[in-house]
Amino acid sequence: MRHYAVLTISVSALFLLFVGAFLNTRSLFYMSTVLIVTLLVLRGQAWLATRGLEFERIAPTVMLAGERVAMRIRVRSLLNIRRPLLFVLDELPPSLAHDADIRPLPVAPSYEQAVETRYELNPLKRGVYKWSDILVQSFDSLGLIRIDKVYSAEPFQITIHPAKIPLSLDLSALGGWGTSQSEEGRSRGHGIEPRGVREFGEGDSLRHVHWRTTARMGTLQVKEFETGFYANLAILLQLTSGTAAGSGTATTLEAMCGHAAYISDVMLQRGSAIVLPNLERGEVAPAHSAGMRFRQVCDALASAQADRPGRFADEIIAADASLPAGTTVLVMLSAAEGGVAAELRKLVTRCSVLVLVYNPEQYSGSKSVGSFYPATDPDFLASISAPNISIKLVPNPYGSQDKRR
Question: What is the pTM of this model?
Answer without folding.
Answer: 0.78
